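Thread: quick sanity check before group meeting

JM: Hey all, I'm pulling together slides for Thursday and realized we never actually wrote out the predicted structure for the chain we discussed last week. Dropping the sequence here so it's in one place. If anyone has concerns about the input, flag it before I start.
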Amino acid sequence: MTGLALAQGTVRPMTLAADEFGKAWYWPIEVTRYDRGGALTAEERTALRALGEDVRYWQQDRPSRLAVLSGRPSDPHWRALDRLVAPLADALAALDLATETQQQGGATAVALLLHHCGAEGTRFWGWSPATWLRLLGATQAAYLAAHPTWVTREARHGLIAIAYLLRCWTDLPALGEFQRVALAGNVFGQARLAATLATVHAVLTGWGYRGLAPSSAGASLLCDALFANASPRLAELTPA
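JM (edit): ok, ran it. Output follows.
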């Protein structure tokens, strides 16, 4: 999935050609372009209360921007939530989601964030670290226990990725066990991450080691380092 320009935010392409992997990588979301106030407006509160758990149908029910511009009628509740939905939809569009399951999980993650805005009575930009940790889950079990039954296991990756891209949560080690390599592919791009892992694998095998399998603990540790450095480029890693 390549990036799209949506709403107020700018989403840069995430999947690059092989000969571009040596170039600088840019953060795909310019969060300063959004209104990041923490308070909900009265209209947003009313809309979230009216929609309730129907926010999970946000992709089907939310009017397209083309429909709005063409003058087609739309649900006023979704119009009232545009300020909330826009950055979440932009972050979702910036992710490189390789499977249908990942795509569905990402859509559910957006719905959960909207639902939680209603439950908290504030926009996600203003949530405390404790609120984010409760939402994301210190473990997979804690995550599942905290949410309605329509929230899937797969949505956790989308939730973490969106929170990371919007710079709302960066302490990934605090979230316990999850598939670091899969998440890094979503955030940094599948092809770019594969090239990064292949480069490290080639170096290790050249030194006589076993290499770096994508499913290995070493690959997970490397992805942790990339996340901490907020860049998929090996050249930008520095000693601690």
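AS: nice. The radius of gyration is 19 Å. Residues 1-20, 65-73 have pLDDT under 50 and may be disordered.
JM: adding both to the slides.
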